[in-house]
Structures are given as structure tokens and as C-alpha cells.
Amino acid sequence: MPPTWPASAPACRSSPRCWPRADRCRCRCTRRRSRRGRASPRRTRGTPRASSDGIRGTDADRVGPFRLVGSGTAEPRLVRDAAFACFGVAAAAGLALVALSGAWWLLAVGALSIVAAWYYTGGKHPYGYAGLGEVFVFVFFGLVAVLGTAYVQTGRAGWPAPAAAVAIGALACAILVANNLRDVPTDAVAGKRTLAVRLGARRTRGLFAGLVAVGFAAALAPVAQHPGVLLVLPALALAVRPVRTVLSGAGGRDLVPVLRDAGLLELAVGALLGIGLAL
Description:
This protein is mostly helical. It has helices at residues 22-36, 53-56, 76-101, 106-118, 133-154, 161-182, 184-190, 195-199, 201-220, 236-247, 256-278.
């Protein structure tokens, strides 16, 4: 007669081989099944295998915002179709901007942006699982977004546009770093090797504070030519709470407000920097 299955270790219930060592094999078997795609929600017909966190099962046990696929509320196919529809709207808007600016080479930039968006967690080898999420966020949320916007509107992307791009990119990365710091325990078990998992919690907290500092330093870099960028300084008040929370060792649900605060910080810096450069 097999031993009684402990309530504290439900992950391997269907595997008799695990019964004698149930308490010890929970994490190991969860990791193994997650990598094979067996711990994920049921795939619907027509949905690519392992094409998102929800399909892979990474979102099955999360802290924070509600997940449509991970919770089983929505079919993966429907969420995928909605994503493709958003890609279509974005592509149409981008095509209009390209036509108005006459810079047809920007079509390649737009195509790369869509590919980068999909392969963050999509495909067989998503770069978000390899610790490269922050790199791509900095490139596409910072450099591409800001320099591209400047070029489309003015026909050039010279100084101070690069400073603004670095500022926005660094603050966007800070949001992702806080998000991944919150998910370190579950990502490590699921095999999602984010930068936070690779660095560890302590160094990731320092990275968050460093990115916020870089964001402000870059925003203020053009001060000699554009004194109006000093308008960004009041936004420092918005940085105090998220940085203090992260450096204090908060984790799990306590980091959810940091995502909100970091997002508001990036919004404030972007708006004030834009006004300051326009003066």
C-alpha cells in the first residue's frame, strides 16, 4: 500500500514513483514537468505549444495581477488572437507614420519590434527565459521608442534625444526588474532564468536602484544646452518610495505597489523631460 500523500506536496500526486519521497520531490518534479510543458494549462487546438508564460505553466502560481491564461479564465487561442489584433493595429499606425515621414527603412524597425514582442515569452527559445528581457526592454522601450519618435517628428535623432532615450529605457528596465524580483521564487522553480534569478535578490535590488539613478542622470545630462530639463528634479520625490521598498528587502506582494510607483515615475519623468526640452 503506497504511503499517504502529504497535503503540503501536491505537485507530483499523479506519479507513484514520487510517493515515497513526496515532501522532497515537489520542487524537482514541478521543475521537470514545467520544462516538459506538462504543468501548464490545457492547450486548445491551434495554440502553439509553449508560446507564453500561461501555456508553459509559469503563471500557474503567481503573486500580483490576474492572469487570463494562467488562471484558466480565457483560452490561450483567444488571448493569442487578441495579441495578433493588437500587433495589426500597431503595424497599421506605424505604416501611416512611415508614409508621412517618408522614412521607409523604419518598416524594418517596426518588424523587429513585433518580433521582439512575440519572442519575449513566445517560441521555443524565448529570450525572456534567458535573462535578456532587460536588454530588449532598454533597446525597444528606450532607444527605439524615443529615437524613433524624435526622428519621425523632426527628421533627426541627435542630441538630446539619446539622453532622453537612455532615461526612459533605464526606467522601463527598472519596472521589469521589480517585476522579476517579485517572481524570483516561482520563476526559479519554473525554469525561467530571468536576470533577477541569475543575479539573486540582493544584487537585483541594487540593480533596481542603479537603473533609477541612471534614468535621472541621463535625463539631466543635457542641462547645459537645455536648462529646462531641471523640471525633472521634482520627480525625484516619486522615486523615494519604490527605491526604499526594494532596498528594504520587500518581496512577493509587497513589491506589487513598486510596479505602480515605478510606472508613475517613468510617466512623470517622460512628461517633465518633454516639457523641459520644449522650453
